[in-house]
């Protein structure tokens, strides 16, 4: 089984031997064309694709396309009078106090948002029939403009999508090679801004993502792979290339979801139900939260503020803090860290590729926390270049080299700690009741200091931290999220009517999974209902097991935890029925090792700086540390894909799955 995760700096490959449970990893520099990096990683890992049972991939292609606006020629067809819904939005700003900072422009220009006459009311009754002559004229104009993809967004199509479907047929006749997305097909839900925005994002991504997935599938098959290519989507499941063609927007957070899944898996291995995942790579840090064994999800998120995407997604907070994050001094003379990054080219000054600005990697090298080699000796680090870069920060602040490096790391840790507080404390969770799973190429270097800052007692470092996100791609199942609007007061809702609606969703889910080759015995269906207090704008999702009264009770409890208040006697409204249809893929099992080993002799001892003091610190090769070994910091643990730092006074042990568990006071 093979998993590949493409990051901004490195492309990680993780190979799991199903027979022995052994893991093999490879890291290569990310390339301009991500497919080239994927294939280079496959070659570096020595993978025989003809003997590969499963190939799973997390990709940032969709995310990067939305950020860079390198999108195909797109158009939008709307109900007359509604072409500006995606531009007006909700009238909010990312920064409420900056009157001069506008939200990002819509993904489709106003001149390419055309209108037709039609109208359906909120109950789905046709008030004005679709004007087919207008529709054909719009299609003729778009064909003349050589549009590659179209979003069809009619105002109440969530209640009756017939007009949208007819418009799509007319467009397909005029533009046979174009991709057509309808809002009733993508997101049949109330609130036209969110529905239109999600449909537009799906439309502009569809040609790009479909082309990428199909080309990768072709190159894998040319090299001998004969299975299904599975692509990780934002909800923490995987999709086949066929499903991607319909719902490309689900890949807009593909790459970051894998790390969250891997954090949950690590927590389960170590017996923790509550865990915060910190995936620190070369460019950014992705932070996720698992509570009572469940990943926290959100039904509304965005790549750029003002353009929501309303598919269930694992809630991951991303900040610009990575190994390559640049340290700078702002106009007020304060030290800053990120979000700008040196990336992989030129990279940190220590890489010797021409980078001159100091980064977190340079600071860790100067402090002795990194050695002179990375990636198993495949990359040499230039300490002198790192010191010169650090001094460009130290001199203006009147700090010596080590003090400046320490200051850079402290600011990076503070940025990450603030992000953890946002995803935990601001959601009603106390970090002290969680364990911290740190991974990514840089995460284990910062994990113990971050835990100390937050009061988190336990830090878990998995076996292969630098490629753990890639392995997360193998820890998920094929998943579809289906929904249906169901506006009813809870006190008046008929359980039979609710169950009939869920039965329709379940039939749709089974058909989708069957089309992807999932056997009926491997299908799992989970029901939930989004509810709200009558008169509220936003809703809260709770599990549904057939008893509406019990679901309402859960809603009150969850509302109290989420928002610190509830209204026990206020009427509750059912808002939306939701179904998660899951198709089981192959389970992964890591080998379990007998405890009882002792610490090996260090491979070297070097001077490492902690809180302004130098310590003679032993350096160990992680592959030589057996299960059951325990030790106390200071210590440095080296391996191919990362370096783990154990500060003075921190106790650590290696468990039966070869995770390093640190206890931080």
TrEMBL record:
Residue span, Hydantoinase A/oxoprolinase domain: 195-481
An example Gene Ontology biological process: glutathione metabolic process
Molecular function terms, GO-annotated: 5-oxoprolinase (ATP-hydrolyzing) activity
Domain Acetophenone carboxylase-like C-terminal: 493-657
Domain Hydantoinase/oxoprolinase N-terminal: 2-174
Segments for region (Disordered): 336-358
A Gene Ontology term for the protein's cellular component: cytosol
Protein name, entry field: Hydantoinase/oxoprolinase family protein
Species of the source: Solirubrobacter phytolaccae
Lineage start: Bacteria, Bacillati, Actinomycetota, Thermoleophilia, Solirubrobacterales
């Amino acid at each position: 089984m093979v998993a590949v995760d493409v990051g901004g700096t490195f492309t990680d490959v993780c190979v799991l031997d199903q027979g022995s449970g052994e893991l093999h990893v490879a890291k290569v520099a990310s390339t301009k064309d991500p497919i080239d990096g994927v294939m280079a990683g496959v070659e570096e890992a020595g993978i025989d694709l003809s003997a590969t049972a499963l190939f799973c991939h997390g990709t940032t292609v969709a995310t990067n396309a939305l950020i860079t606006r390198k999108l195909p020629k797109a158009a939008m067809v709307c109900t007359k009078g509604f072409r500006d819904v995606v531009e007006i939005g909700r009238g909010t700003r990312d920064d409420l106090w900056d009157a001069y900072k506008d939200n990002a422009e819509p993904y489709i220009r106003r001149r390419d948002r055309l209108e037709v006459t039609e109208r359906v009311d909120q109950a789905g009754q046709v008030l004005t029939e679709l004007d087919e002559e207008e529709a054909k004229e719009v299609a003729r104009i778009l064909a003349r403009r050589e549009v590659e993809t179209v979003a069809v967004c009619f105002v109440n199509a969530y209640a009756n999508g017939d007009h949208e479907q007819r418009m799509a047929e007319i467009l397909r006749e005029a533009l046979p090679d174009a991709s057509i997305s309808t809002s009733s097909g993508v997101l049949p839900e109330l609130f036209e801004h969110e529905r239109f925005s999600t449909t537009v994002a799906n439309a502009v991504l569809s040609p790009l993502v479909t082309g990428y997935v199909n080309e990768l599938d072709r190159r894998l098959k040319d090299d001998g792979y004969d299975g299904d290519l599975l692509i990780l989507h934002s909800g923490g499941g995987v999709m086949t290339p066929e499903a991607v063609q319909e719902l490309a927007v689900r890949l807009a957070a593909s790459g970051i979801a894998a790390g969250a899944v891997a954090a949950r898996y690590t927590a389960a291995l170590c017996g923790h139900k509550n865990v915060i995942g910190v995936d620190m790579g070369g460019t950014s840090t992705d932070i996720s939260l698992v509570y009572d064994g469940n990943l926290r999800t959100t039904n509304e998120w965005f790549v750029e503020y003002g353009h929501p995407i309303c598919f269930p997604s694992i809630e991951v907070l991303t900040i610009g803090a990575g190994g390559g994050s640049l340290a700078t001094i702002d106009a007020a003379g304060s030290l800053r860290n990120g979000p700008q990054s040196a990336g992989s080219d030129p990279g940190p000054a220590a890489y010797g590729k021409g980078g001159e600005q100091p980064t977190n990697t340079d600071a860790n090298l100067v402090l002795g926390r990194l050695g002179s080699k990375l990636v198993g000796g495949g990359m040499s680090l230039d300490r002198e270049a790192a010191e010169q870069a650090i001094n460009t920060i130290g001199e203006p602040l009147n700090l010596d080299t080590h003090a400046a490096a320490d200051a850079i790391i402290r600011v990076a840790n503070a940025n990450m700690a603030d992000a953890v507080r946002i995803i935990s404390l601001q959601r009603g969770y106390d970090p002290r009741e969680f364990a911290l799973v740190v991974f990514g190429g840089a995460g284990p270097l910062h994990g113990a200091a971050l835990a100390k800052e937050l009061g988190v007692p336990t830090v878990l470092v998995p076996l292969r931290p630098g490629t753990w996100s890639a392995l997360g791609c193998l820890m998920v199942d094929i998943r579809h999220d289906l929904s249906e609007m169901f506006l009813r007061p809870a006190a008046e809702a008929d359980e039979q009517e609710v169950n009939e609606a869920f039965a329709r969703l379940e039939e749709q889910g089974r058909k989708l999974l069957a089309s992807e080759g999932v056997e009926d015995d491997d299908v799992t269906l989970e029901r939930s209902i989004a509810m709200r207090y009558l008169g509220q704008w936003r809703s809260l999702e709770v599990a549904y097991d057939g008893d509406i009264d019990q679901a309402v009770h859960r809603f009150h409890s969850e509302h109290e935890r989420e928002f610190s208040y509830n209204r026990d006697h206020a009427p509750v409204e059912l808002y939306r029925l939701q179904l998660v249809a899951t198709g089981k893929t192959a389970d992964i099992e890591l080998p379990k090792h007998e405890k009882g080993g002792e610490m090996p002799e260090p491979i070297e001892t070097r001077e490492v700086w902690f809180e302004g003091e130098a310590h003679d610190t032993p350096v160990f090769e992680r592959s030589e540390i057996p299960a059951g070994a325990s030790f106390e910091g200071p210590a440095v643990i080296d391996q191919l894909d990362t370096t783990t730092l154990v500060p003075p006074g921190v106790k650590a042990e290696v468990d039966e799955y070869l995770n390093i568990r640190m206890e931080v006071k």
